[in-house]
Automatic annotation (TrEMBL):
<feature type="transmembrane region" description="Helical">
    <location>
        <begin position="319"/>
        <end position="338"/>
    </location>
</feature>
<feature type="transmembrane region" description="Helical">
    <location>
        <begin position="385"/>
        <end position="406"/>
    </location>
</feature>
<dbReference type="InterPro" id="IPR010290">
    <property type="entry name" value="TM_effector"/>
</dbReference>
<keyword id="KW-0472">Membrane</keyword>
<feature type="transmembrane region" description="Helical">
    <location>
        <begin position="359"/>
        <end position="379"/>
    </location>
</feature>
<feature type="transmembrane region" description="Helical">
    <location>
        <begin position="169"/>
        <end position="198"/>
    </location>
</feature>
<feature type="transmembrane region" description="Helical">
    <location>
        <begin position="58"/>
        <end position="80"/>
    </location>
</feature>
<feature type="domain" description="Major facilitator superfamily (MFS) profile">
    <location>
        <begin position="1"/>
        <end position="410"/>
    </location>
</feature>
<keyword id="KW-0812">Transmembrane</keyword>
<keyword id="KW-1003">Cell membrane</keyword>
<feature type="transmembrane region" description="Helical">
    <location>
        <begin position="236"/>
        <end position="256"/>
    </location>
</feature>
<feature type="transmembrane region" description="Helical">
    <location>
        <begin position="296"/>
        <end position="313"/>
    </location>
</feature>
<dbReference type="Pfam" id="PF05977">
    <property type="entry name" value="MFS_3"/>
</dbReference>
<keyword id="KW-1133">Transmembrane helix</keyword>
<feature type="transmembrane region" description="Helical">
    <location>
        <begin position="87"/>
        <end position="108"/>
    </location>
</feature>
<feature type="transmembrane region" description="Helical">
    <location>
        <begin position="268"/>
        <end position="284"/>
    </location>
</feature>
<dbReference type="InterPro" id="IPR020846">
    <property type="entry name" value="MFS_dom"/>
</dbReference>
Length: 421
């Protein structure tokens, strides 16, 4: 009895979002599904690099997958506001499952071609354009504002637990059975999250009022709303830089493994797991401190440390050194992302929240095509080391400029609000 009570108290203190039944249903499903997603991520990257031998073509696949988010994310925010989010998630997760099974069938029947992978990446990107802001905005419906940051941190914990387990399983699968089985198991894993979503019972928030001036006016209003709030604006700009230049590991790590370290898919999976270990630790840290709420200073420090880690990655030449830097990088990646995500949701008014999170999806994932193409091009010309270093230097310079700009514009009042004494 005492052990059970102690466990319950620990969960209530550090993982209090799990006390909500609806959130538990979604979280448990994601625990399974995200492992499959990471298996597919590393399987697809290695498959493309094996078929083409080109870092740029691998970057092009990433660009195809994230380009729809860049083009249509702002429109997705309007849709998310006007339909029940549970229904939207059931549709998007089903589509993701079908696409995974399709890729598995192509690989297992030896009919896969690079062009087919590009098309499937584009379709997945279109689907994720709607899925991402829906999942972001759904959190507050099922846990409330008080437990929102804890839910975001737990989502990151799950995502990065999967980033540890998924690549490890995926690397073994690829070595023993081939990449096709990674895609097949990913398709099966969606059954868990679909079952969890169907068990959720909540009263959905649906914005009923209609703008007489149309969709473009609503998008414009959302952007103006963000621009007028210093916390939202600075957060969005920092997320843009980090999303574009610092989150290209799916492009650079396989190239680094193959062309710099001259290792196989097992080492690739290990390095991705190192990134996941750091990210998992970062997510747990944010979960434990979630009661204190998000602070701008955390995003600022996170962005600067991530920049330095990218440079160190480029200067490293051994598996152990790269793995160690990736652990640190992963930790601050998630500290930055979790704090920034929570900052936006906590500071946005309810009627603007879906639109704010659609902008978050736009700058965080939608900027990735530009970053993927840039990373792939630089890796093609100067190697993965050069790509890591150039991305790190650019990230550091741009983040410092943003920090200096807002410090100069807002002075001591913004610093006080950000938590800097």
């Amino acid at each position: 009895m005492n052990i059970r009570h102690a466990g319950s108290t620990f969960i209530e203190r550090h993982f209090h979002a799990l006390t909500h039944r609806n959130y538990r249903n979604l979280w448990l499903g994601q625990c399974v599904s995200l492992i499959g997603t990471w298996m597919q991520n590393i399987g697809q990257s290695w498959l493309v690099l094996t078929i083409t031998g080109s870092p740029f073509k691998l970057g092009l696949v990433g660009a195809f997958q994230f380009m729809p988010i860049l083009c249509f994310s702002l429109f997705a925010g309007i849709i998310v506001d006007k339909f029940p989010k549970k229904n939207i998630l059931l549709i998007t997760q089903t589509v993701s499952m079908i696409l995974a099974f399709t890729l598995a069938a192509l690989v297992l029947t030896n009919t896969v071609k690079y062009e087919y992978i590009l098309v499937l990446a584009l379709l997945l990107g279109l689907n994720n354009t709607l899925d991402m802001p829906t999942r972001q905005a759904f959190n507050i419906e099922i846990v409330g504002k008080e437990d929102l940051m804890n839910a975001v941190a737990l989502n990151s914990t799950t995502f990065n637990m999967a980033r540890i387990v998924g690549p490890s399983i995926g690397a073994v699968m690829m070595a023993l059975l081939g990449a096709g089985w990674c895609f097949l198991l990913n398709g099966v894993s969606f059954i868990a999250v679909l079952f969890g979503i169907m068990r959720i019972k909540t009263t959905p928030y649906v914005r009923k009022e209609r703008s007489r001036e149309g969709v473009m006016k609503e998008i414009k209003d959302g952007i103006i709303y963000i621009a007028r709030d210093p916390v939202l604006a600075q957060t969005v700009l920092l997320v843009t830089v980090i999303g574009m230049l610092a989150f290209n590991f799916n492009i650079l790590i396989p190239v680094f493994t193959k062309n710099v370290l001259h290792m196989n898919e097992t080492t690739y999976g290990t390095l991705m797991s190192c990134l996941g270990i750091g990210s998992f630790a970062g997510a747990l840290t944010m979960s434990f401190r979630s009661k204190h709420g998000p602070k701008m200073i955390i995003s600022i420090i996170g962005s600067l440390v991530v920049s330095v880690c990218l440079i160190l990655n480029g200067l490293s030449s051994s598996v152990w050194m790269v793995g160690l830097v990736l652990v640190v990088n992963g930790f601050f990646n998630i500290v930055f992302a979790t704090n920034s995500n929570s900052n936006l949701q906590m500071n946005a008014k309810e009627e603007y929240r879906a639109r704010v999170m659609s902008v978050y999806s736009l700058v965080f994932a939608g900027s990735t095509p530009i970053g993927n193409l840039f990373a792939g091009y630089v890796a093609d010309r100067y190697g993965a080391n050069g790509a890591f270093i150039s991305n790190g230097v650019l990230t550091l310079v741009l983040c410092l400029l943003i920090i200096w700009k807002f410090k100069k514009a807002s002075g001591s009042s913004l610093l006080k609000k950000a938590g800097i004494n």
